[in-house]
């Protein structure tokens, strides 16, 4: 009799455990707009965090990351950039092709077993929106940065009409002129006033310890991007400045709009530009305003 009671108790506990696991899988930990986040997804996200940070025990970290991912996706959707299921499948395929840590990716995938939908929600989606919103969509959206773009275009129109009044116009509108050196050999860098001209006159090589402010941090990959951007300017912009040294278009450049004027052709494939910048709006403050429009509720404590 006692043996059957023990068996019954074991089955009851096993059933209770299964029901609890099923309940946890469906139980809602948070909602973001019309999207919900399950406890199970939070546990999976925490497991991913644990791969890189095994000592990190904050159980809310996974929830916070998933909420942020859904917020980013909701904001993109408001601007007509919906993160569709097909888009996530393509991103998953890109990750497979380009990952530099295949063993880690394999370990992450093993957490999901055959549940590909959970893998897309919990791993691929946060990675995708975390790059696209701040680095691809936001910096180049004319809708978001329309006001500062209009300011840049208005100044450009005045400057094109009177290119010889560059300093007068900038002073009148309380703007700052910066010198930008463009070289097919060294890329792009801001230089102090007169620095490039002094080097040209003295025919001095650039010192290794010279204080420089590179637009892109100079490691092997970034230096290559800087050189490609410089070559693009030399090929596409410089030939159009023969009649008027002020380029006819506002340039979309990282976190600013640029109005540029060719100042000097220093040597073969080395040019000095005068630049007036119009800063785009700050991502953090914009994100805070956009996030406030989307209701977020946390049920997980």
Give the class from helix and strand content and strand pairing. Answer: alpha+beta
Number of helices: 11
Mind telling me the C-alpha Rg?
Answer: 27 Å
Largest sheet, spatial ordering of strands:
5-4-3-8-7-6
What are the secondary-structure elements, in order, as H or E? HEEHHHHHHHEEHEHEEEHE
Poorly predicted regions are: 3-22, 196-220
What count of domains describes the coordinates? 2
Global morphology: elongated
Hey, roughly how much beta strand do the residues contain?
Answer: 15-25%
The protein's oligomeric status is single chain
Helix content: 40-55%
The tally of strands reads 9
* N→C terminal distance: 43 Å
The major pleated sheet works out as: 6 strands, antiparallel
- Mean pLDDT, rounded to whole units? 85
Plain-language structure description:
With 301 residues, this protein is α+β, with helices and mostly antiparallel strands. The protein has two domains: 130 residues, no CATH class; 125 residues, no CATH class. 53% of the residues lie in helices and 17% in strands. It is built from eleven helices and nine strands. It has a six-stranded antiparallel β-sheet. The protein has a three-stranded antiparallel β-sheet with strand order 2-1-9. Strand 3 and strand 4 form a beta hairpin. Helix 2 packs across helix 6. It is elongated, with a radius of gyration of 27 Å. The two termini are 43 Å apart. The N terminus is likely disordered.
């Amino acid at each position: 009799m006692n043996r059957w009671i023990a068996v019954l108790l074991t089955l009851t506990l096993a059933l209770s455990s299964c029901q609890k696991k099923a309940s946890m899988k469906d139980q809602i930990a948070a909602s973001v707009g019309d999207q919900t986040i399950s406890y199970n997804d939070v546990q999976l996200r925490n497991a991913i965090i644990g791969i890189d940070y095994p000592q990190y025990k904050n159980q809310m970290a996974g929830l916070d990351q998933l909420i942020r991912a859904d917020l980013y996706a909701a904001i993109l959707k408001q601007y007509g950039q919906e993160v569709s299921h097909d888009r996530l499948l393509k991103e998953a395929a890109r990750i497979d092709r380009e990952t530099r840590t295949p063993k880690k990716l394999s370990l992450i995938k093993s957490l999901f077993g055959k549940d590909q939908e959970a893998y897309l929600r919990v791993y691929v989606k946060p990675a995708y929106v975390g790059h696209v919103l701040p680095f691809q969509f936001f910096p180049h959206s004319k809708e978001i940065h329309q006001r500062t773009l209009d300011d840049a275009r208005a100044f450009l129109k005045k400057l094109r009409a009177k290119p010889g009044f560059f300093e007068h116009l900038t002073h009148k509108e309380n703007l700052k002129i910066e010198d930008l050196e463009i070289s097919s050999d060294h890329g792009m860098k801001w230089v102090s006033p007169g620095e490039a001209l002094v080097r040209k006159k003295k025919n001095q090589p650039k010192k290794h310890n010279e204080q420089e402010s590179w637009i892109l941090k100079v490691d092997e990959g970034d230096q290559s991007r800087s050189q490609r951007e410089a070559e693009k300017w030399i090929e596409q912009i410089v030939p159009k400045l023969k009649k008027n040294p002020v380029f006819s278009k506002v340039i979309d450049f990282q976190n600013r709009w640029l109005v540029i004027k060719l100042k000097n052709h220093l040597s073969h494939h080395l040019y000095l530009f005068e630049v007036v910048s119009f800063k785009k709006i700050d991502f953090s403050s914009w994100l805070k305003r956009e996030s406030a429009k989307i209701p977020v509720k946390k049920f997980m404590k």
